[in-house]
Amino acid sequence: MKANVSKSWSPIILPEFKKEYFKELTAFVTKEYNTNTCFPATEDIFAAFNYSSFNTTKIVIIGQDPYHGPNQANGLCFSVKDGIKHPPSLINIFKELESDLNIPYPKSGNLERWAKQGVLLLNATLTVRAHEAGSHQKKGWETFTDTIIKKISDEKEGVIFLLWGGFAKKKAKLIDTKKHHILTSGHPSPLSANRGYWFGNKHFSTANTILKDSGKTLIEW
């Protein structure tokens, strides 16, 4: 794995690389990438930590694992590369964004623009085998990303965590609610959204209201 991370994340991330669980994870991921088609590209595995620095992170969105179709995953949860057809969950995210903030539906599904403003787009599992959702779960990634979430909770204040769906909501136990804000809703996947658990959550406007009240720069969603 190419562990390219920004300097601000290094004190948090690099110690994890030395732990036994991460060595085993690295061996597993390396073998998977050598013997199967996996996503994202190796240079994008840690992309979430290269756009949003630790110091500037003010919103955290937690996904489950990367898209497993060709040319989709770019290392940021729910995001796809420029020019790629928007997956169903991303379509529903953009529809909610459209109705919540009255802005045009975005042409590009690449969420780097969010990440550069301090939105950490973190999948709990950072890699996946092609066409096999969840194939790299329970191999050590969750230990790593739970550590990241806990460190953010412990060492920062006033971060807004957007927890969409049952899986993400389980991460609430890692977050100090006395110091941070948690917004929860159903998952943007069609199954959840069509049952009324996603649309109308107004998380984008609510997050910006919290940022405004805290004297922080708003996100240009």
TrEMBL record:
List, from the UniProt record, the residues annotated as the active site of this protein. Answer: D65 (proton acceptor)
Its chief place of residence is cytoplasm
List the SUPFAM superfamilies: Uracil-DNA glycosylase-like
InterPro entries in alphabetical order? UDG_fam1, Ura-DNA_Glyclase_AS, Uracil-DNA_glycosylase-like, Uracil-DNA_glycosylase-like_sf
Domain (Uracil-DNA glycosylase-like): residue spans on this chain: 50-211
Q: Which GO terms describe its cellular component?
A: cytoplasm
**Which reaction(s) are listed as its catalytic activity?**
Hydrolyzes single-stranded DNA or mismatched double-stranded DNA and polynucleotides, releasing free uracil
Enzyme Commission code(s) on record: 3.2.2.27
The highest taxon in the source lineage is Bacteria
Biological process, per Gene Ontology: base-excision repair, AP site formation via deaminated base removal
SMART domains named among the record's database cross-references? UDG, UreE_C
Instruction: State the Gene3D superfamilies in the record.
Output: Uracil-DNA glycosylase-like domain
Protein localization:
Cytoplasm
Mind listing the GO molecular function terms for this protein? uracil DNA N-glycosylase activity
According to the UniProt record, what class of enzyme is this?
hydrolase
Task: Give the family this protein belongs to, as stated in its UniProt record.
Answer: Belongs to the uracil-DNA glycosylase (UDG) superfamily. UNG family.
**What biological function has been recorded for the protein in this entry?**
Excises uracil residues from the DNA which can arise as a result of misincorporation of dUMP residues by DNA polymerase or due to deamination of cytosine.
> What name is this protein filed under?
Uracil-DNA glycosylase
Q: Which organism is it from?
A: Cellulophaga lytica (strain ATCC 23178 / DSM 7489 / JCM 8516 / NBRC 14961 / NCIMB 1423 / VKM B-1433 / Cy l20)
Question: Lineage of this protein's species?
Answer: Bacteria, Pseudomonadati, Bacteroidota, Flavobacteriia, Flavobacteriales
